[in-house]
Design goal:
- The chain has 145 residues and is an alpha+beta fold.
- The chain has a 5-stranded mixed β-sheet with strand order 3-11-9-5-6, with no helix packed on it.
- 14% of the residues lie in helices and 35% in strands.
Length: 145
């Protein structure tokens, strides 16, 4: 009798208790265009930064987005060759629907040179249930010769 009662209790709990719910926190993430490792990019390009969720305030994010000159290829590391003394590229940043940033260099980029688009950690989503951008993200690309 105990054995059958124990079986009934186990089956009842399995049906009523169910599997434990695993909650994975949602955090803000970004996708870049051009993507990491792209080559042959036009010197008059406009980069796009797609946020996974609408961001809190586009004006606050503008300081968190930047483009820098890495130097001559290969683009694996900064070497500064072909870049000005200040590798930061002056850009104009505009937003669509608080979720897509357009990053347009104010001047043509240098041909056959490596650049990186960066989004700094800490950018906050408009949704309070979504955590901020956890780390710096970047995407390096090379312009066409």
């Amino acid at each position: 009798m105990w054995r059958s009662l124990a079986s009934v209790l186990v089956l009842s709990c399995a049906a009523a208790c169910g599997d434990p719910e695993i909650v994975v926190p949602d955090v803000l993430s970004v996708t870049f265009l051009p993507p990491q490792g792209s080559i042959g990019i036009s010197t008059d390009m406009e980069a796009l930064v797609y946020f996974s969720h609408a961001i809190q305030t586009p004006t606050a994010v503008q300081g968190a987005l930047s483009m820098v000159c890495l130097g001559s290829p290969p683009c694996a590391a900064e070497n500064g060759q072909g870049c000005s003394a200040d590798p930061t590229v002056a850009t104009t940043i505009t937003f669509e629907l608080n979720q897509v940033a357009h990053v347009k260099p104010n001047q043509l980029l240098t041909a056959n040179t490596c650049y990186s688009i960066r989004a700094a950690a800490g950018v906050e989503a408009n949704d309070k249930n979504v955590g901020p951008l956890p780390v710096d993200f970047h995407s390096a690309f090379q312009t066409a010769p």
